[in-house]
Specification:
The structure is a homodimer of 174-residue chains.
Chain A lengths: L5 E5 L5 H14 L14 H13 L4 E7 L2 E9 L9 E8 L8 H16 L4 E7 L3 H9 L3 E11 L5 E10 L3
Parallel strand pairs in A: 4-5
Antiparallel strand pairs in A: 1-2, 2-3, 3-4, 5-7, 6-7
Chain lengths: 174, 174
């Protein structure tokens, strides 16, 4: 049995170049990516600036999962600066296919919840997930996310078929 | 009885300067504005470019309601360029308070539905609305929008109170 070293931590500006590379791969290999806003078309310098802002943000979070110092997954919580909705964090997850099924999602979700409770700002976490993505749905249910809506035609598959998307949420209380 | 002349049409680049002014006012006077993406911090030149793009877009729409040639309301449908969700149009409405209750919302919604059916691309319209905004909810129900979710803590009022937000949708079929 071999030993692996997994670290989950907040992304820092120095991760910019590697992160951009990983996001390219993730964008290509999964139907479930919800992280458009992370900016796949940024330069490394822009990404580094972005990461610095997120690192300091009271209501935004970007986590990286490192396996022996290589990024194999990312998780994000995005929230608005607008006061009326600054308490709502939208979660996005993306893990390299090779590393599915090792519990990385759970580790990252635990970190997200600990962080959310510590912010004092985030009071609602939400996410959307394709109904057919059973692995992800189970993960969210395990962490007490509730399905608020079945969004009809929430996404179209590569085959042109309309699919249901769940809107799920979890309240955060002090 | 005086006569007024109301025109509803697609926004054109020449509307840019006036539109920016109206959006400033709308941003200040309503809790219900959902059109952040229209870009209140754009210059008139950027806005004109943006309007030109929207005018030509197969799945984005910006309507203006003109009362005697002055913009008194706007309605937007925003959709992604991403193939998997390009069929989903998110509706935003904003009408100057002075002109509430004259049916402008209905006129604009009729135009939106006619446009959506003509696109061949849009197959789902969606919007979010504060549950307490009864006037808007009635309008959407009149046009057969269905409530898909009651989003708990979907918005925080100026008084710091968490309020429910409805997610509503309406399918578009040929």
């Amino acid at each position: 049995m071999s030993e692996v070293n997994i670290v989950i931590r907040k992304a820092i500006p120095a991760d910019a170049a590697e992160l951009l590379k990983v996001l390219q791969v993730l964008g290509g290999e999964t139907d479930f990516l919800v992280m458009d806003d992370l900016g796949l078309d940024m330069t490394a310098v822009e990404m580094a600036d972005n990461l610095a802002l997120m690192y300091e943000s009271p209501n935004n979070l970007l986590l990286v999962a490192l396996l022996d110092e290589t990024i194999v997954g990312v998780a994000s919580v995005m929230a608005s600066a607008k006061l009326s909705i600054a308490h709502i964090g939208e979660i996005g997850f993306s893990i390299l296919k090779e590393y599915w099924g090792f519990g990385l999602g759970s580790f990252m979700m635990e970190e997200i919840l600990i962080w959310a409770e510590s912010t004092g700002v985030i009071r609602r976490l939400e996410l959307t997930v394709q109904a057919r993505n059973e692995r992800a749905c189970s993960l969210y249910e395990k962490f007490d996310f509730q399905t608020e809506a079945v969004m009809a035609r929430g996404v179209k598959s590569d085959e042109g078929e309309f699919l249901d998307v769940y809107l799920m949420s979890r309240m955060i209380d002090e």
